[in-house]
Design brief:
Elements (H helix, E strand, L loop, with lengths): L14 H19 L21 E2 L2 E2 L21 H22 L1 E2 L3 H10 L3 H21 L2 E14 L3 E13 L8 E14 L2 E12 L1
Antiparallel strand pairs: 1-2, 3-4, 4-5, 5-6, 6-7
Helix pairs in contact: 1-4, 3-4
Length: 212
């Protein structure tokens, strides 16, 4: 049985809580050691509106669908309903903003990044991140660590009206004592679990799915 630090031996730690702590621990390490791919964000989510010849019997379709391509004929693919498109755009935007806040860090202004992350978090992730924020600030200051990065793409893995799973790709640099204050490039893939609360999409879990 795994027991939370500072808790009684009879209180079991759930798998989700353990994973959250692990992810935050990795975050602290990457801030200090330059192991995190950094990125500062730019994702454009546009609505595709089919017009004119792109309309088949009154149904909106993806532009170019129905044309002969190679062997056979490509069938028209109906677009998602407007409400679903708007929901997906909101989910991608929320994940992108969170990723940007999470991976951009200036040791001279740590509160800005920390408060931004907390404002977009909920549940166990918010609790564990808040608990470790002071240690993160102290250690990053000692290492004089800066992270500067951007989101290069974001994709929806799954989503509905209440939850969403989004993966973002990031690219950026890190500078600190370990890198002798020279920028070192890093690339990462981060998966975010979102939940809709009070009309906002908040992050309830965040984990690295690929590092480089």
């Amino acid at each position: 049985m795994e027991v939370a630090v500072g808790r009684s031996g009879g209180e079991q730690v759930t798998g989700e809580q353990s994973r959250v702590r692990l992810n935050i621990a990795l975050y602290v390490v990457t801030v200090l050691c330059g192991c995190l791919a950094l990125f500062g964000a730019a994702i454009i989510v546009g609505k595709v509106l089919a017009e004119g010849d792109d309309t088949v019997e009154g149904t909106d379709v993806v532009p170019g669908a129905g044309q002969d391509v190679g062997r056979g004929r490509v069938e028209a693919v109906p677009l998602a309903e407007e409400a679903e498109q708007e929901r997906t755009a909101a989910q991608l935007e929320a994940a992108t903003k969170m990723a940007n806040a999470f991976v951009n860090f200036d040791y001279e202004e740590p509160d800005r990044a920390i408060e931004a992350v907390k404002s977009m978090s909920t549940g166990d992730f918010l609790a564990q991140y808040s608990k470790g924020a002071k240690d993160l600030e102290r250690l990053a200051t000692e290492a004089k660590s800066d992270m500067d990065a951007e989101v290069v793409w974001a994709g929806l893995v799954a989503g509905d009206e209440d939850t969403a799973t989004v993966i973002v790709a990031t690219s950026g640099t890190v500078r600190n004592k370990t890198t002798e204050f020279q920028p070192e490039a890093r690339n990462y893939r981060i998966q975010l679990e979102l939940v809709r609360e009070g009309g906002r999409w908040l992050t309830k879990d965040l984990q690295y799915v690929a590092l480089g």
